[in-house]
């Protein structure tokens, strides 16, 4: 039986670990939160007292952590670095969204000990994590990508090989920067049309079928009432928080700075989402950016 | 037999008139260019000595002109305003991309004489005009929209009713502003990915199937070689010129200004396309904006 250690059982990691257990993997879960561990246990995971206990002798080690420093601390330079206990034939799959440099450095540190490491950030949100329909964007060798397949398929639907180590993080950050741009542009275009007398649903349909067509118009319309199941029609609850988009745009700015890549549109989008957060909207779904554009009473 | 007067036989109007003649309409064509008239004649149109001669007794009058002042001059306040000669049961279909205010004013001037007028700007470019697959975005009453159908169907594929007079122009300008934003964002994201070691085709495919998906990635990839038939793979020849995008973004800025609609992303995109034009690229396809982002040798 294949043993998978799963470190980090938050809103994303919790349901991902549960899907692995449901698919028949022997999942050894660890988190700092006792409540998260209880939930994991009720969903068929073994629970471990420490990350080291979870990772020892595991065939795969998956991590889902907030930022690069946590990933580096867990594997390389924390109190009990997992690269000291993971067996050489195992593969580490880090699903955290972190900076590409850290991903490359941790991969290199693993390689020194003969341990494989891929970056495999996800998109698809909490809903995708629960439904097992996440998208994984993987950076690593062809052999490592092949090795990761059975585990990733138990948690996701689309699994892409972006390139070598770090490429998964770069591709994710490019995608999410583009997403921020097209969501801001969509909010802006719909708002201008509505202020000029157009029906938001009619205008959305025209643009969706024309050259303005994009993911937001297809599945995530930011105007309340146009799309029944979109966060916009549920008070902008659920979905992908403004705070998380701002985190990803910060990573995009880092990549831009390190590589001297011009990002005028991404920078503008980042400013808009940050203005929107300053207005007290950090916990709302990111499509609530529409509210920043709309007229308030004077 | 239904007679259609067609005024303005440029790169777009010429093939549109030819498609009407091919569909069996009696087309009376007029243009200031003798050569355009010759071409129209060879494609089955009657040619008229003046716009008034073409429009007198016609069932439909179609115009395809560069800007609002030309449309107003043709119908309302020029030397020989067509509203003096068009019969009241006729419908005027103005396919020019002009400002919404002029469209509304000309519609009102027509209504005073009992002549119907709809704004019906197109998208789909010269290729769409030739193939008869244009998109028409129509502003006018329900009855006028219905009346225009047989004529528009002979020239286009998707025919949308955006709303009342002027709504066609507003919807087109919203769409094209959004298009400029998503093209700039797509150029920016691909360029940053490539500078960080990713393959442009692999990154494009990942974003296309993820939340960065948009029309440019689907049918108009700006990176040379990714999409065989896109202008990017043909030296950015053909397609939709930077100069025309800048014209449409100027109209978007007018709509924004008149309605106090905030357009930070559209303004940023307009600045980028204008910088690109300043670099001597006004006649290239608009996806050539990628070149503005790419490194040149120092």
TrEMBL record, chains A, B:
Pfam families: NAD_binding_11, NAD_binding_2. InterPro entries: 3-OH-isobutyrate_DH-rel_CS, 6-PGluconate_DH-like_C_sf, 6PGD_dom2, 6PGDH_NADP-bd, HIBADH, HIBADH-like_NADP-bd, HIBADH-related, NAD(P)-bd_dom_sf. It is an enzyme of class 1 (oxidoreductase). Keywords: Branched-chain amino acid catabolism, NAD, Oxidoreductase. Its EC number is 1.1.1.31. GO terms for biological process: L-valine catabolic process. Pathway: Amino-acid degradation; L-valine degradation. GO terms for molecular function: 3-hydroxyisobutyrate dehydrogenase activity; NAD binding; NADP binding. Residues 3-163 form the 6-phosphogluconate dehydrogenase NADP-binding domain. Residues 166-293 form the 3-hydroxyisobutyrate dehydrogenase-like NAD-binding domain. The active site is at 172. It catalyses: 3-hydroxy-2-methylpropanoate + NAD(+) = 2-methyl-3-oxopropanoate + NADH + H(+). Belongs to the HIBADH-related family. This is 3-hydroxyisobutyrate dehydrogenase.
